[in-house]
Design brief:
With 391 residues, this protein is α/β, with parallel strands linked by helices. The protein has a domain of 212 residues: Rossmann fold. It has a seven-stranded mixed β-sheet with strand order 3-2-1-4-5-7-6, with helices on both faces. α1 packs parallel to α2.
Length: 391
């Protein structure tokens, strides 16, 4: 369901005066749409396309918003009226295929509005016309007051800029000043046959006008007459106030959203600050840790070097001890051999001594026997024989 948000008008959801303000432009364009192929670029809800289709041969309403096109297709069904979803920057139509292009309150919504002007020129026939409208930036800003700029407008025009940009694309441009004014209508009860209009107006003042409506053409045409649109109902001041109120409500909602977004942003900033501080603390801790690790690595290298030196000293000491042990083992082995040799000599000497002892005992026994001999005793008595001492 399409809803009026201030971006595009939805019939039945706005006051009559605001609808009349928009319908007046389509009534103005209808005079130039008779039996023509018409393209309503940025058709919105489609009410204006239906107005054009009342006199045109064919009307195509194009809008980039799917919900707007759907609303238009459901509410305005005519045999010579068709709606399509398309962007104004790339119209799906052949060159020189359209007699009249209408774009009311569209150009100020586009970032690439110059591209749109070139696209409108492309699809127009050599005798075609382009009718485009936009609010006067000076008046529109003043009329909105504290509500501020329209959030859906990306570029608003003053009179000279609007006319100059159109003339840079189309050789013939006629700009009309659209003003929604109060008037007094005298209408006969019995149907009249003519309409007599008195226009008490001062000299045109573009800086004070409400909207600009331009008719752009490739070929020059006679001067366009003044056009007055008298709607059946509506009160300008009441409707404008209603329109401003709706926009103010929308802006208030956007302000709430902005305030919430600002608060959330501040929370994110605070969280980021806390994370930054935590990161800085972590970085300082990491730097200290890295420094300690570097110091400990240096100490480990020092200990490793000392260990290598000690190992080398231990190896030399072990080699020296092993050499000393080997010397002492060899000495022990030599000693063992000497002991064995000495023991053998001792055994030999003992055996020799034992043999001498045995010989001595034998000799003593013989000597004893000799002494005890009767012949020896006898010879001693006579002083004969050897003198054998008595042991």
């Amino acid at each position: 369901m399409a809803e009026f948000t201030g971006e595009r008008l939805i019939p039945g959801q706005v006051e009559a005066d605001l609808l009349n303000e928009h319908m007046a432009r389509y009534a103005f364009a209808t005079r130039l749409a008779h039996s023509k192929r018409v393209l309503d670029a940025g058709c919105g809800a489609g009410y204006g396309s239906a107005e054009l289709a009342s006199v045109a041969a064919l009307v195509i309403g194009a809008d980039v918003a799917h919900e707007a096109v759907t609303f238009a297709q459901e509410h305005y069904r005519l045999p010579n009226l068709h709606f399509e979803q398309a962007t104004c920057l790339a119209l799906p139509h052949a060159d020189a295929s359209v007699d009249l292009v209408v774009a009311f309150e569209v150009i100020e919504h586009l970032h690439e509005w110059r591209e749109f002007l070139m696209e409108a020129r492309r699809v127009l026939t050599p005798h075609g016309q382009f009718i485009v409208s936009t609010p006067n930036r000076l008046y529109y800003t003043e009329s909105r007051g504290p509500a501020g700029a329209n959030p859906f407008h990306v570029h608003e025009f003053e009179f000279e800029e609007f006319r100059s940009e159109l003339r840079s694309v189309f050789p013939h441009v006629s700009v009309f000043l659209e003003n929604h004014v109060e008037g007094v209508l005298f209408q006969p009860y019995d149907k009249g046959t003519t309409i007599d209009v008195r226009l008490d107006a001062k000299e045109p003042a573009p800086q004070e006008t409400h909207f600009f409506v331009a008719v752009c053409e490739h070929q020059p045409r006679p001067d366009h007459p003044v056009y007055v649109y008298l709607p059946r109902t509506g009160n300008v001041l009441r409707e404008r106030g209603r329109h401003i109120t709706l926009l103010e409500e929308e802006l208030a909602e956007k302000d709430k959203w902005l305030e919430r977004a600002t608060r959330e942003h501040q929370e994110l900033v605070d969280a980021h600050q806390r994370q930054t501080e935590e990161l800085e603390r972590s970085n300082r801790w990491a730097e200290n840790l890295n420094r300690e690790i570097a110091e400990r690595r240096a100490r480990v290298e020092q200990l490793q070097n000392e260990l290598v030196e000690q190992r080398e000293g231990y190896a030399a000491k072990v080699a020296e001890l092993e050499e000393d042990i080997e010397t002492k083992v060899q000495w022990a082995r030599d000693l063992e051999k000497n002991v064995e040799r000495t023991e053998k000599e001792l055994q030999e000497h003992t055996a020799w001594a034992l043999s001498l002892e045995s010989r001595r005992q034998q000799l003593e026994a013989q000597l004893t026997t000799f002494r005890a001999s009767r012949w020896v005793k006898l010879g001693r008595n006579f002083g004969l024989g050897p003198d054998v001492p008595v042991g």
